[in-house]
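So, could you explain the following?
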Amino acid sequence: MAACAMLAALRATVELKLHVNAALNIGCDPRKLAEIFFQVATYAGMPAVNEALEVYREVLKERGEWPIK
């Protein structure tokens, strides 16, 4: 989760996609992961959050987990 937050803040979208998949694979709650991305706004601004959420949605769609229930 910390790696996802840092990659979101750095706007490293390719790497973030890999780490979001990994986080979900090991059992991270998808809702908590989304909360982490919103916390990034304080440190990196909303453009970074928007990019992270875009990657997050893309990963969930690829996994057949979008929308979150």
The mean pLDDT is 97. The two ends are 21 Å apart (CA to CA). The helical segments are 2-10, 13-25, 30-39, 41-44, 46-62. The first helix runs from residue 2 to 10.
